[in-house]
Each structure stands twice: as C-alpha cells, then as structure tokens.
Amino acid sequence: MRLSSCHNFHDFRRIAKQRLPGPIFNYIDGAAEDEVTYRRNTAAFDDCDLVPNVLRGVADVDMSVTVMGQKLAMPVYCSPTALQRLFHHQGERAVATAAGKYGTMFGVSSLGTVSLEEARKLSGGPQVYQFYFHKDRGLNREMMARAKQAGIQVMMLTVDSITGGNRERDKRTGFAIPFKLNLAGMAQFALKPSWAINYLTHERFKLPQLDTHVDMGGGVMSISKYFTEMLDPSMTWDDVAEMVKHWNGQFCLKGIMSVADAKRAVEIGCTGIVLSNHGGRQLDGSRTGFDQLAEIVDAVGDKIDVMMDGGVQRGTHVLKALSLGAKAVGLGRYYLFPLAAAGQAGVERALEQMRIEIERDMKLMGCTSVDQLTRQNLRFRR
Ligand SMILES: Cc1cc2nc3c(=O)[nH]c(=O)nc-3n(C[C@H](O)[C@H](O)[C@H](O)COP(=O)(O)O)c2cc1C
C-alpha cells in the first residue's frame, strides 16, 4: 500500500502496522487495561449528529482560530507525543516542519527525541512544550527557563499522568525504554529488518529534553524509572499555581476532566485547559474529552480557552467539538500513524486531508467561519 492510496486514518494505520515492529506499533496503538476509554474516545462522536444549514453562500471558508493567544490557520494542532524518532527517523523534525507548513501548533514532549530548540528552528508555527512536574523544583524552573529561552509560546503541563497507565500490550511485548524486549518482542523486530536498518543508520536515540538532567544513556534511568523516581506524585494545585506565576505567559493544563478542576485552573491563572484522557492510555473507564466538553465550556468557557483531544479521526469530529465550544482540537495518533508510514510526507498528507475535510464539512454545514458552528447545529441521540 502506498502513501497516495491513504485516504483516511485507517489507511495510515494499516501502513504503520506493516512498517513498524509489533512492540512499537502496539505502543502507539495501545491504551490502558481493557481500552474501553480508548474506544469510547472515537465512538463518542457518533452519539451526536450534525444538523446542516443550506444556501448560505459558502464559497470562501475561513477555518482559522485563535487559541491561547496563538493564531492557527486550522482548528487542529499536533498534540505532544513521546519517542517520535522510534516511529520514523525524522521524528519531531517531520511533525514540527509539517505543522509549520500548515500554520498550526505542535507540541514537543518532555520525552521527545529532538530538542525543543531544534524543533523551534524548524517550524514557523507556535510551539507547545509539554512538561511533567519533577520532585526537584529547581529542575522545573530550569526547564521553564530553557523553554522561555528557546521561544516556546505555550507551556503545557500534563496532569493526568501522576502515575503510569496500565498498558498491557506493552507488558506483553516487553516494550520499554531502554528496550527490554522479551523473546516474542525480539522476534517482532527481526520481522521488520527495514525498520531496524533505518533506525540503526540514523543518529543515536536520545531524549534531549531530559538528558542534561537525567542519565538515560547508559541505561541507568529507564522511562518508567523516570516516572517513579523523578516525577512528583505529591504535586498539588499550589505547586502548579507557583509554576503558572513563574512562567508568566500562556499556560495550559492537559488532562482536565472535571468542572471543579476546570474552575481551579481558572483560579490559578491558567490560560487554557485540554480535556483529555491521554488517548485512553492512563485511567481506563474515564470519560472522554468530547463527552465532558459541554459542561466544562458552560462552567468556564468565557474565562479560559477550552480544548479537547482523544479519538479525533475526521473533520466532522472537529466540527462537533467546535460546535460544543472547544477553541481547538488536539490530534495524537491521527498524525503518528502517518509519521510512521512516511515521515514528513505522511504527516503533511494527513494534515492536508484534515484541512480539506474541515473545509468541505464547513461548506456542507453552511458555515464560513468557525464562530458560526454552534450547539444549534448538533443533536444528541440520547
Ligand atoms: C504514542 C503516544 C505517546 C504519547 N506521549 C505523550 C507525552 O509524552 N505527553 C503527553 O502529555 N501526552 C502524550 N500522549 C497523549 C497525546 O498527547 C494525546 O493526548 C492523545 O494521543 C490524544 O488521543 P488520540 O491519539 O486518540 O488522538 C501520547 C499519545 C500517544 C499515542
């Protein structure tokens, strides 16, 4: 199957599955425990139908939005994800460049494989730095200073990962960083020699956001150890309030789900929240961002920018979220499978398809700008 025959999420996923060793494909594709939340993320959009208006003169569509002070040419952004150079040797470089070309925002993860400074140079689009909270407060401040220095526009603190999710697919394959594959996992790598050649003939794997602070190189620190030993499970709202003050700019919490927490985020001076369950990878059985949107927008939508992510595969999903009041929508696996399938060309094709779908869907809805999408255009089935 070739890139030119990829027309949707599922086509890209199929190529990614063909290209990647099983343990890596399952790391991307998998989620926590029974993966109920993962499935619900996409299914939630099907509980609601779009009610179009017609004959509205829709020759020119403007899908741009402004979120957390950043103007985006399209209402979707590439949510931060870890370990991208494992999926394709171009990794974050491909995503940063593609996002820049499409005039949108992208995130670099704390567990990113390209430095936030290098990504900043590659992209004209706004950049998010996805951050975890460390026990060492000095380290937190140092990392924020580094991000400021690099010209990062938005700080995004992930708050749904206070402990690692129970990802059983990874347990079965032995997926971990550094690699600790079991026999079955190793056999899966042997089946994909072209991935291995590609991986081994490019620069050494590193985690440049962390390696000045944490020794990942010699296998001294694994990612799971990083989570248990370096990150602070006692983090509270007071700690985050201090960070928000210290950053003194656009600050967003990723992984908010309750109205109470959304209100706290406003109180401590955050400028954005992302309703997210981490793509179903953390608390299985938790609610979806889309299902929580209406009540959170009603509670705080006039005081803070509300975004959502999880399960987005189609332009119509984006339109439904915007109609409920989301300011922008995050994409995860939607761009990761194309990255794995074909690097930058894959991510660009996926973003182009999303752009075309949103434009077509807005025309079919009778809308020429995002502010015309309202709850009047939606009906829930139950
Ligand atoms: C392989 C993978 C790695 C991820 N790594 C991170 C990460 O390092 N930090 C983070 O905040 N979220 C991470 N996420 C979550 C995404 O930012 C986003 O919330 C999620 O993928 C959205 O769901 P979707 O994949 O269904 O679009 C990751 C998701 C995936 C699939």
Account of the protein in words:
By secondary structure, this protein is of the alpha/beta class. The protein contains 16 helices and twelve strands. It has helices at about 10-20, 20-30, 35-45, 85, 90-100, 115-120, 135-150, 170-175, 185-190, 195-200, 225-230, 235-245, 260-265, 290-300, 315-325, 335-365, and strands at about 50, 65, 70, 75-80, 105-110, 125-130, 155-160, 250-255, 270-275, 305-310, 330, 380. The strands form three sheets. Strands 4-11-10-9-8-7-6-5 form an eight-stranded parallel β-sheet. The protein has a two-stranded antiparallel sheet with strand order 1-12. Strands 2-3 form a two-stranded antiparallel sheet. Helix 6 links the parallel strand 5 and strand 6 (about 125-130). The two termini are about 40 Å apart. Flavin mononucleotide binds near residues 28 and 158. The site of flavin mononucleotide has 25 residues, from helix 2, strand 11 and helix 16.
Topology record:
Blueprint lengths: L8 H11 L2 H8 L6 H8 L4 E3 L14 E3 L2 E3 L3 E3 L5 H4 L3 H11 L4 E3 L7 H7 L4 E5 L5 H14 L3 E5 L9 H6 L9 H8 L2 H8 L22 H8 L6 H11 L2 E7 L2 H9 L4 E4 L13 H12 L4 E5 L5 H10 L3 E4 L1 H33 L12 E3 L2
Parallel strand pairs: 4-11, 5-6, 6-7, 7-8, 8-9, 9-10, 10-11
Antiparallel strand pairs: 1-12, 2-3
Helix pairs in contact: 1-16, 5-6, 5-16, 13-14, 15-16
The protein binds flavin mononucleotide (FMN).
Flavin mononucleotide binds next to helix 2, strand 11 and helix 16.
What are the salient characteristics of this protein?
single chain, 382 residues, alpha/beta, eight-stranded parallel β-sheet, two-stranded antiparallel ribbon, 16 helices, 13% strand, binds flavin mononucleotide
